[in-house]
Amino acid sequence: MSEQEHEHTVEQFSDDTRKALAEAAQLLTERLQAHTAALLALTADSDFEALFEQNAELEELVESWNDAVLDHTGTIPLALVDTEDLEEEEEEVQTEQVISVVSRFDLRVVDAEALLAEGRAAQERVLAEDQESDLRDPVESAEQAIYAISREVGEAWFALPGIELIAGARAYVVPEQPFEALEPEAEDIVTELTTPNGTVTYAESWA
Asked: For the segment 62-80, what is each residue's pLDDT rounded down to a tens digit?
């Protein structure tokens, strides 16, 4: 029980609080001694249902003693936590955090021959390292060339040969719950590229 939750009905450091604290301590001491004796007498074949009941009784006396100390001094010696609260906190800690990163880059082709040449070279290097790669269609367009280069080196928007960056932007979004992840196998993948509802935590752009 917290200090905020516990209501003081008596004056601190009074004869009443001293008496209540002494009684709570006496009851707790007696129960703790009896409980310890019961624990020491336990065996593998003992009735643990009785132990659970004794545990509950001891917990109540500890809480009463804690409250008596609070009444007398305004402080709490034992920060008791409900196991249900611990389970809720654990669930919160284990809650998966999701961040959606959405990008768009507009590119202008200024040297198609240089771009296609680098795209074909990138395709050859990728296939040499990974013969099972799906990068097998002939590189005959700017899009195919950019795709092949990106498969080899990742995002290379600022270093693509024969390409001029018109503009680019990227947003980092913490999506609202419930969250539906992008479906990579969707028939119309373009519809999956929209920014999810949520909070934009960071954004950057280039021109």
From this structure: 889 988 888 888 888 887 7
The structure tokens 């050859």 sit at: 124
Q: What are phi and psi of 151, to 5 degrees?
A: -65, -30
Pick the closest to residue 202 from 96, 97, 101 (CA basis).
Answer: 101
pTM: 0.50
Can you spell out the DSSP letters for 101-134?
EEEEEEEEES-HHHHHHHHHHHHHHHHHH-TT-S
DSSP H helical ranges for 7-164: 15-40, 48-73, 83-94, 112-129, 142-153
The answer for 74, left when phi > 0, alpha when psi is -120 to 50, beta otherwise, is: left
Chain position carrying tokens 């006396």: 61
Q: Report the alpha-carbon distance of residue 139 to residue 120 in Å, rounded.
A: 6
